[in-house]
Amino acid sequence: MENAKIGTKCVQGGYQAGNGEPRQVPIIQSTTFKYATGDAMGKLFDLEASGYFYSRLQNPTCDTIAAKIAELEGGTAAMLTSSGQAANFFATFNICGCGDHIVASSAIYGGTYNLLAVTMKRMGIDVTFVAPDCTEDKLNAAFKPETKLVFGETIANPALNVLDIEKFANAAHAHGVPLIVDNTFPTSVNCNPFKWGADIVTHSTTKYMDGHGSAVGGAIVDSGKFDWTKYADKYPGLCTPDESYHGVTYTERFGLGGAFITKATVQLMRDLGSVQSPFSAYLLNLGLESLHVRMKKHCENGLAVAKYLENHEKIAWVNYPGLESSKDYALAQKYMPNGTCGVVSFGVKGGREAAGAFMENLKIVAIETHVADARSCCLHPATTTHRQMNDEELEAAGVSPDLVRLSCGLEDAEDLIADIEQALSQI
Ligand SMILES: *Cc1c(COP(=O)(O)O)cnc(C)c1O
């Protein structure tokens, strides 16, 4: 499957049925696995043989779907997690701890911002946020001797900034640290961060990968390209024996292609247990099978809606990276020439009240705390997720009071536009 195109990988990656075996990926809904001797199981615990023994560490269904996502990203290894939040926490916490430091783009998902700025800070991990469009000097100035990684989002949720992946990768590598990129919004179909120098990719599979609003989940993929052993003193967790796991040295035993994911599995998953259920992995795979077909339609609808809104007299502004008027259009063309995503943000003239009234008039588009679903949905942060903030506080958080985030689903664009038109005509 390695040389196949992305659509073929979406449909058939990760799993090839043998003679007389199920054509669809089987759901191995079992917590544990049977062995004839204690010795045979002991070898699994020692990581001397590979096999399954307890589904908190590994499960065949989850591994099959993780292998598909590794193929989609062109990585060497991958793991599923219970959510996108768990994926970003594991990906970062796998290589940093108390006293360490992270450089992150400020244009990231609110949950990830909070994870880095509040929760990981309580663990003694410090973070410096930089604007995604900052100069190289400004970016380089954010690094400290304790910096262990750089973090960004390929398309930021909800600000929709496009990350200059090469700029961030070059700065990270010049300081001897990897770049971790959350590729949730464009997905592996529209953007391949490894091609541009990213070292590790994460996903909230809850979004387009699942695509049907049916299962919360996450994934981490390793490119296998970052040479931890070159900076062994900086990454002792990967390059020196792990006393909590029978003295194994991950880079020695599993090579650069397997060290990161093996450590995250046998150490973090063992201790923190944020596993995805085999049934959720099965649902995720149903979504993955049509991801390449759906992304085209999401992008088509996103662009059609963005173009319509751009010319509407009741709309103050539109932000969509696929629009030529977008400040990130050139970056979007470079990193995701086949399309960006189906999420459009815009301002309704008349501010907070007008935006709220507009949304309540929508019939096909539903008000939801979600994006990247087959069904179109929208959210007005000023009256929902950010409702405790006044207008000044909203502006400081990068969320204007009139901002509406609209996630274009898979319906016909004509119907979405007609729905928006009738809702705007009533305000
Ligand atoms: C939703 C989202 C997350 C968090 O994922 P969950 O699956 O909700 O935990 C992380 N990053 C991005 C870009 C997201 O959109």
Secondary-structure class: alpha/beta
Query: What is the average per-residue confidence, as pLDDT, rounded to a whole number?
Result: 95
Spatial order of the strands forming the largest sheet: 1-7-6-5-4-2-3
Order of helices and strands: HHHEHEHEHEHEHEEHHHHEHEHEEHEH
**How much beta, percentage-wise?**
5-15%
Number of strands: 12
Number of contiguous helices: 16
Query: Major sheet, described briefly?
Result: 7 strands, mixed
Poorly predicted residue ranges: none
Give the % helix.
25-40%
Q: Rough shape? A: globular
* Bound molecule kinds, no repeats: pyridoxal-5'-phosphate
Amino-to-carboxy terminus distance: 53 Å
For the CA atoms, what is the radius of gyration? 22 Å
Q: Characteristics of this structure?
A:
5-stranded mixed sheet, binds pyridoxal-5'-phosphate, alpha/beta, 427 residues
Topology:
Layout lengths: L5 H7 L25 H8 L14 H14 L3 E5 L2 H10 L7 E5 L4 H13 L3 E5 L5 H6 L5 E7 L11 H10 L4 E4 L4 H4 L9 E5 L13 E5 L13 H4 L10 H23 L5 H11 L2 H20 L4 E5 L9 H7 L7 E6 L2 H10 L5 E2 L9 E3 L11 H6 L6 E5 L5 H13 L2
Parallel strand pairs: 2-3, 2-4, 4-5, 5-6, 10-11
Antiparallel strand pairs: 1-7, 6-7, 8-9, 9-12, 11-12
